[in-house]
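User: I'm preparing a small set of examples for a lab meeting where we compare how different chains pack in three dimensions. I only have the primary sequence for this one, and I'd like the structure in token form so I can line it up with the others. Please keep the answer compact; I'll paste it straight into my notes.
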Amino acid sequence: MRLYTRSGDKGKTSIIGGRRDKDHIRVEAYGTCDELNAFVAKAAAGLDESIFSDIQPELIKIQHELFDCGSDLANVKSDAAYKVNAEMITFLEERIDVYIKEAPELERFILPGGSKEAADLHICRTITRRAERTTAALMKEEEINNEVFKYLNRLSDYFFAAARVANHRLHVKDVEYERSAIVFRSKKKKND
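Assistant: Understood. Below is the structure token output for the 192-residue chain.
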């Protein structure tokens, strides 16, 4: 197999069911999912298996699902058989709920970082947000699998929750944004 094809030398690329300019918003959307996938691999590789025996395999699962997102975003066939589905989104929601309960409550905005592990997960979160913005722009121009957009929206929340848990498990405090007012009220204070 030859790695190069020369078919993209004039600024176009093949997608499922057609061709697009390499700078087309659809190509940008699935390309950003590919970029995110590489950063998820980096985040997973940096986790200690004994501390993150739950998060590390979840990140590998997410890598496969990001490939599914890219495949769906690259598909322009009228009879497309999409891969991303509601069950994937439900799984993320369930894991977010678990991690939110484990991490300490937030009162203020936090900066990305704390531990290296959390910083890597925050990078994944911000790239997910870019993928989400690009996919939103694509949705205005062409039809897509809407489950991909929902998945990306939930995935950024997953990375935020996982980053906070990473700091918590490593006994590293989240870095509060120093000019933040109290923006999140604890459930205990609401009930008082």
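A couple of notes for your slides: The mean pLDDT is 91. The CA atoms of residues 75 and 125 lie 25 Å apart.

User: Perfect, thanks.
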